[in-house]
UniProtKB/TrEMBL annotation:
Keywords: Fatty acid biosynthesis, Fatty acid metabolism, Lipid biosynthesis, Lipid metabolism, Membrane, Transferase, Transmembrane, Transmembrane helix. One of its GO terms (cellular component) is membrane. GO terms for molecular function: fatty acid elongase activity. Its main location: membrane. One of its GO terms (biological process) is fatty acid biosynthetic process. This is Elongation of very long chain fatty acids protein 4. It is a multi-pass membrane protein. It comes from the Eukaryota. It is found in: Membrane. It holds the Pfam family ELO.
Length: 97
């Protein structure tokens, strides 16, 4: 469980540095924070919380991704749909962080 998280963190960091030439954009920072917090929480749960709570992080992360990509899918349906789903954009960003 930790190795894939660590690989995602390294990939996000390398992509941010490579694409942004050491100048992080808000999107690159959001992605980096997302992977970093996942790694940190998994380590904390594995060390201090009993009962397999470290496995809770992965389904939670998957749920956030399902919500994100559903939003992106709906946004491709045009301006009429974008008007309807636009109010939840801030909620999704907060959920990602």
């Amino acid at each position: 469980l930790l190795l894939p998280k660590l690989a995602n963190l390294v990939e996000a960091t390398v992509n941010a540095l490579w694409k942004e030439h050491i100048r992080f954009s808000s999107r690159a920072c959001l992605r980096h924070d997302h992977h970093m917090s996942g790694e940190v929480f998994v380590r904390i749960y594995r060390k201090y919380v009993a009962g397999g709570m470290s496995t809770f992080i992965t389904p939670l992360n998957c749920s956030v991704h399902v919500i994100m990509y559903t939003y992106y899918l709906l946004a491709t349906f045009g301006p009429a749909v974008q008007k309807v789903i636009n109010p939840i954009k801030l909620f999704i960003t907060i959920l990602q962080v």
